[in-house]
Amino acid sequence: MKGSYLGEFEEIILLLVAMMNDDAYGLAIKDQFEQQTGRSSAIGAVHSALNRLEKKGFVDSKMADATSERGGRRKRIFFVTAAGKSALETSRQLRNKLWDQIPELSWKGLKLNPVWL
Amino acid sequence: MAVKSDMPPKLSFFIIQFLCQQQYQEEILGDLEEYYVQLRKRQLNYKAFRYWYHTFNFIRLYALKIPFKNSIIGIMFKLNLLVAIRSLLRNKFYSFINIFGLALGLTMCMFIAIFVINESSYDKHWENSERIYRVVSDLKFNDNEFNMSVTPSPMANSFREEFPELTAIGRMQNGGGVMAKVGENYFDINQIAYTDHQILDIFKFPLVHGATEGLLTGPADAMISASTSEKLFGETNTVGKTFEIDGTEWEVKAVYQDIPQNSHFHYDIMMSMERHPRANSQVWLSNNFRTYILLDENNNPEQFESKLPLTIKKYVGPQIEQISGATMDEFLAGGGRLRYYLQPVESIHLESDLQIEIEANGDIRYVYIFIIAGIFVLAIAIINFMNISTARSSLRAKEVGLRKVIGSKRGLLIGQFITESMLNTVLAMVLAVAMLFLVLPIFRNFTEISVGNPLFGSINLWDDLLISLVVIGLLSGIYPAFYLSSFIPIKVLKGNLSLGLRSGKLRNILVVLQFSASVILIFGALVIYSQMNYTMQKSLGFEKDQALVINDTYWLGSKVDAFKNELLNNQVIENATMSSFLPVTGSRSDSPLMPEGMTNVEGAVSFQNWPVDENYIPTLKIKLVEGRNYDPSLASDSSGIIINQTAVKRLGLKDPIGKKLKTIHQFDIYGRNQFTIIGVVEDFHIDNFKSEIWPVALILGRSTGAITVRFQAQNTQQVMELVEQKWEEFSPNVPLSYIFMDQQFEDQYASDQKLGTLFNLFAGLAIFIACLGLFGLAAFTTDQRKKEIGIRKVLGASIPNLMTLQLSGYTKLLIVSILVSLPVAWYVTKEYFLQQFIYRTDFTVAMFILPGLIILLLAWATVSLISYGASRKNPVENLKYE
Questions:
Q1: Residues B544, B713: contact at Cβ < 8 Å?
Q2: A48 with B63: Cβ contact below 8 A
Q3: What is the pLDDT of residue B1?
Q4: pLDDT attached to residue B3
Q5: SS3 of A103, please?
Q6: For residue B769, what is the enclosing H or E element?
Q7: What does the pLDDT look like over A52-71, one tens digit per residue?
Q8: Exposure b/e, A30-39, CB count within 10 A at least 16 = b
Q9: Does the beta-carbon distance from B33 to A73 stay under 8 Å?
Q10: Which helix (H) or strand (E) holds B55?
Q11: Long-range contact list for B3-6, CB < 8 A, 24+ apart?
């Protein structure tokens, strides 16, 4: 299957869409993203990621009813599809599986390397 | 800027609407407006910046409007491109041959374009260059013809009076290379010119320092180029500083930008004409000055030229009459000619080939030769593509058949194949541009052409590249496209395998064309090489090897004789002569002489009159054929003269020794006006082989500008040391400047030789590309015949048998191309190249055999690479799938 891979940014956006249920549209997702992760992002980047997720079949969208806000323009509301859910689950399981396999020994004697941000 | 109004900036909406697809606009604009409202409520810095940052972040690939994205054209193009890329990748070998060959050809063409553009850009950079002309002379006295770039001294002043309609007219006098003295230091200057101040109205030299106003009007005025200024004084702002040339002091009044490389003169210093000894001469029969004019817009050169004869008659007529007794009309009626005409300054570099040019000019024939070579190479590369695509057609036949069955129209198929050739061309072009930039530094170094960025600089190639991209793409694709799309589905789907051979005839013709072009190029390269070789080895009439020319000896002043004698007294030096008039390059001076007793000026012959000493003839090893050399012990030799054979012929003398010659109108030549011929020397070449041998007179006289010493080859090192040591003794301040005469001679041909080398390189490349194509073609046809080869081998054919079989087909083609092209090559080189040399090489048998042999051997080697592999293969491998 072409492009079923889920990138880190995409995964977070997908999780946010699931979390925000019924109120997931571009700008709102961007705001949530910033609140939850503390990272900033361009609205365009969120739109672009949503667009990719839709192409991969992980989210679906519909236009909401028009309101007086946004100059009468409708919002595009995103929601997670079954494929999206299973992609998230696969990703989570993979992580859990890997976490479980980490021997306790690995954490012993960790050095604190400076991290340059 | 803070966000003020309620509404977001309209511009941002406009940008989004313009760039983004309709389907995304609503949500994007909605989010933007909401974000805007959000921003207004919050306390933040840089709100406007944030808003615009997000706006521009919507310009992303997924949302962009792509023209034709969803139209038939767009979809078809995408599909065609995909098919083209796939077919390119499927056959990496053939694709490589096509693209690499084409890229090589294109690179070569770009270099040729740079060369051609540079050659034709000469002197076009002057302001009003299309109205600047040089007056040149076309003279005939008796059977002496002169086509010279120089004119009489009084011409400029007389014309200025006679023709008020001339915007400007002025003279320049080439003073050659000199030593300039600043303080106690001496500097070598390449070329200086005595210049009328009116010249500055014609050529507007851009000044770095100083003012044009009143420039070169004072007797000691000089203007120097920026780089000369750097050289002499270490800076460019040197207005007011002084330097000395040959004991005369000059003051820098202005510094001008270095004259661009694409100009017909490159004077480093221009000095006021006033102090030139012949500046005010009224003699019209001596030509030493270059006269330039600037016409105004309403005047054309023909108009101006038509008025000249009357004026010439007015000024020159009396002088001719005075000398010869014949009136101007009689002179003209007797076949004499005194014509001056205008030469557009823009045409000088490529078209002017007169006697006494300032610098070696280019030659329009070289430009044509290179254009032809470029076209040949490009054609060879295009033919490669056509041949390989049609030959491989049988592999594409099924594809075409199936597409047609499914409903593809012919036009669509043609579109598809054209897309393929376009893709090839684009890739080749990209590769070619990469190679261009890679090789450019070497090219720049080699040709000394000062090119900047060839694509977007003054040599603006990018638009030509785009045009040629389309033309080459279409040209190489159109035949395969029409041919391949013409297949009838039912035939190809039934499996008619002879398809690849159907186009064989045309392919053969194309191969013949390719190799004919290669043969012509090799032949041309051989002729050029042979001509160069001839020039280098031809007997010059003097010995250029083992002769050292010491320049600027006039600095030694009165010590120069002592210096010469010191050198002569040394064992390692065979001989030494003092004269700045030397055959290869040196001073020149001409004036007419005629036999005593002749009264008609038409009998006069224009001579190069060279003052020499008694060592001149033995030092240069010029052969005396009659009479004797000067003898310093004979006082009468001071009125003696030694002339060359051409002079004897021109004068029409039967028994020259003892005959007397006189100047016309009692002009003095080195203080004398009557000479007795005491010797005749064999003709020797002066300047170069492109010009005919002139009458030369060697007159006992003093010219202290150069000393030439003759030595034995094994003593070269000692001679150099000796000369350096003696120079140091005699003139510790002036740097020694010397050159070997053979070096000097080769320098004259440096540009010709470079062009020859370039041409060889191009010819070699052309053959390489042709062989590349043949390799691809052979690989393909051999692949097609592998079953046949297998069966033949099973039946007992040997490897040589099989190889001859495969080679014989190509051999026939090659022989045809050799037979067709040799006569063409012979005719073209004879009529258009060798024609321009007065002393030219002969065609040799080798010239006719070698190109064919080279082509045959290369082609055989190429085909053998393929056919040997195929013939050696175990037949089982070729047959096992049957």
A1: no
A2: yes
A3: 41
A4: 43
A5: coil
A6: helix B750-784
A7: 899 888 999 888 888 777 87
A8: bbbbeeeeee
A9: yes
A10: helix B47-56
A11: B3/B36, B3/B39, B3/B40, B3/B47, B3/B48, B3/B51
d(CA B247, CA B264): 29
> Quick check: B706 and B567 in contact, CB under 8 A?
no
CB contact under 8 A, A75 and B57: no
Residue A88 pLDDT class (50, 70, 90 cuts): very high
Nearest CA-CA distance, residue B407 and chain A, Å: 30
Shortest Cα distance, chain A CAs vs residue B85, angstroms: 20
B27:A26 CB<8 A? yes
Q: Which residue of A has its CA nearest to B20?
A: A44
Q: Which of 14-33 (B) contact A at CB < 8 A?
A: 24, 26-33
Across the interface, whether the CB atoms of B24 and A25 are under 8 A apart is answered no
Q: How far apart are CA B232 and CA B224, in angstroms?
A: 10
- Which contiguous run of DSSP H or E holds residue B173? strand B168-182
A9 and B CB contact within 8 Å: no
- Rounded to whole angstroms, the Cα distance separating B328 from B318 reads 8
Contacts of B31 in chain A (CB under 8 A): 25-27, 43, 47, 70
Beta carbons of B30 and A70 less than 8 Å apart: yes
Chain A CB contacts of B62 under 8 Å are: 48, 51-52
Question: Dihedral through CA B812, CA B813, CA B814, CA B815, nearest 10?
Answer: 50
Q: Give the per-residue pLDDT at B690.
A: 62
The DSSP secondary structure of B835-853, one letter per residue, reads GG-SS-PPP-HHHHHHHHH
Q: Would you call A95 an interface residue with chain B, using a CB distance cutoff of 8 Å?
A: no
The rounded distance, in Å, linking the Cα atoms of B295 and B376 is 42
Selecting from A26, A48, A52 the residue whose C-beta is nearest the C-beta of B31 gives: A26
Q: Quick check: A71 contacting B, CB < 8 Å?
A: yes
Q: Inter-chain contact B29–A51, Cβ cutoff 8 Å? A: no
Copy the structure tokens of residue B233.
Answer: 């004084």
Q: What is the DSSP string of B21-44?
A: -HHHHHHHHHHHHHHHHHHHHS--
Going from the C-alpha of B117 to that of each of B375, B396, B460, the distances in angstroms are: 16, 42, 9
pLDDT along chain B (882 residues), means of 10: 62 84 85 86 83 85 72 78 86 86 91 88 89 88 74 89 88 84 86 90 91 87 92 90 88 92 90 86 82 87 86 85 76 81 89 77 82 88 82 76 86 86 91 92 82 74 87 86 82 64 73 88 86 78 87 80 87 88 78 78 78 90 89 84 89 86 76 87 78 84 87 86 87 78 80 81 86 83 81 86 84 90 90 78 86 88 84 79 56
The residue among B29, B4, B2 whose CA lies nearest residue B17 is B29
Q: Are strands B605-612 and B696-700 parallel, antiparallel or unpaired?
A: parallel
What distance in Å separates the CA atoms of residue B612 and residue B619, rounded to the nearest whole number? 11
- At residue A14 the predicted structure's pLDDT band, cuts being 50, 70 and 90, is very high
Which structural domains are found in chain A, ordered by start? 8-66+73-101 (1.10.10.10)
**What tokens does B256 get?**
């001008």
Q: What per-residue confidence (pLDDT) applies to A98?
A: 94
Q: How many helices (H) and strands (E) does chain A have?
A: 4, 2
Q: Do A42 and B35 touch (CB under 8 A)?
A: no
| Pair of tokens at residue A41 | 């992002």
Length of chain B: 882
Question: CA of B31: which chain A residue's CA is closest?
Answer: A27
What CA–CA distance (Å, rounded) separates B698 from B707?
A: 16
Q: Does A23 touch chain B (CB under 8 A)?
A: no
Interface test with A, best of B19, B28, B31 (most A CBs within 10 A): B31
**Percentage above 90 pLDDT, chain A:** 44
DSSP-derived pairing of the beta strands B185-195 and B269-272: parallel
Which percentage of chain A shows pLDDT scores above 70?
Answer: 91
